[in-house]
Automatic annotation (TrEMBL):
Organism: Pseudomonas cavernae
Homology family: Belongs to the aldehyde dehydrogenase family.
Example GO biological process: gamma-aminobutyric acid catabolic process
Gene3D superfamilies in the record: Aldehyde Dehydrogenase, Chain A, domain 1, Aldehyde Dehydrogenase, Chain A, domain 2
GO molecular function: succinate-semialdehyde dehydrogenase (NAD+) activity
Active-site residues (renumbered): 259
Annotated protein name in UniProt: NAD-dependent succinate-semialdehyde dehydrogenase
Alphabetical list of InterPro entries matching this protein: Ald_DH/histidinol_DH, Ald_DH_C, Ald_DH_CS_CYS, Ald_DH_CS_GLU, Ald_DH_N, Aldehyde_DH_dom, Aldehyde_DH_Superfamily, Succ_semiAld_DH
Amino acid sequence: MSMDLLKDKSLFRQAAFINGQWVEQTAHGKYALRNPATGEVLVELPVCREAETEFAIESAHEAFQRWSKVTAKQRAEIVNRWYQLVVEHKEDLATLITLEEGKPLAEARGEIDYAASFLQWFSEEAKRVRGDVIPAPKDSQRIVALKQPIGVCAAITPWNFPAAMITRKAGPALAAGCSMVVKPASQTPLTALALAELAQRAGVPTGVFSVVTGNATRPVGNVLTGHPLVRKITFTGSTEVGRVLLAQSAETIKKCSMELGGNAPLIVFEDADLDLAVEGILNAKFRNTGQSCIAANRVLIQDGIYEQLAARLAARAAELKVGNGLEAGVQIGPMIDEAAVGKVEEHLQNAVAGGARVLAGGRRHALGGAFFEPTVVADVALGMTIAREETFGPVMPLLRFRDEAEAIAMANDTDFGLAAYLFSKDAARIWRTAEALETGMVGINTGLISSEVAPFGGIKQSGLGREGSHYGIDEFLEIKYLCWDGVTPV
């Protein structure tokens, strides 16, 4: 059994976590959670719908009344204890991620480090929430701006980073004094439930952090976006779903953070360090089997180095080891499900039909199931589906450009603006290109840009708001202005 792989078997939870209680059954039955690498049923979990979600929100509201009055220092200590417990249970948490999401265990360990970093960072930021004293227009007045926790927050998180996408939201929310109801992706709830267990051990009070399970995503989402007690929605996922959540949240004028889809360009100029570029491209494209919102969706290569770099990338992609993420040395795990594989095949077929060349991979892997070969495709054109839409899989499309102006125009020719990457040794070119790219984040001579100290987020149809960094906690705070008159001048 999967539980046998864990040192601390109590982290393998088979129930929703609402108002400090483990809810093993609901009136709506259960659904089966499967391992994407093997297809085996990992566990059956309760399906939560409207009633359970409403109870979680009401409990969170009651808890908020108390939690928001706890001192910043005390909140910091509790969130920091949560961080320490996540670090202590890193191996078990990583194993859960690999079991339910499929990524190689080495990557899963890296995700736990990343997830823990947000709890540590925001435990420190809890004590740094500051207001302002503002010069008043009258000498009898004093003007003060306070920052206060917004209230009950709802987090709807994706399956591709089941630990980090929760702590990146819950860390600042709890540090600010908010309570939170989390709806994790139906494909990856086990990591969320293990985090809830550790939060409880850390001393997070009853009702402050709840996890609603199930595959009834729309009914749960309707309650979270429509309930008047929820003051903040934070979502990571597709732009299509983000639009729906924004529209629904408008009815009750909720504050929203949206980290949505991407179509990240990666530009390689002729003067780039090609060794550095190859490593950066592989990291930016194939991490988590290409299932990342900031994955390089389009690799733009200058004419003079196109064929050379394409050959090197194809050779390296062919060497990547595909398999069950629990096996030693595996670099590429399964995709999340059959639908994801089907999307990759459709994009690839469209490209080949338009004249693109497959240099490596291009097929379902011999392992079968949800495994797909790491693929490199040359001679891709801007109009192809693979260059217009987010593929979200292990397929690397290569496009040509002539000069800097064309590269920037190609990179910006999209409705999305989450991340971009560029490789060059020319400092002036780097400045010009980075400033011209219409994205919220730019990686320069690197394919790895995520960090708890940096503001993560996009522009255009890639989202609203920022997560991480000192900006991240502001998303969970409201500013209150106090105008105090009657102070008699001396």
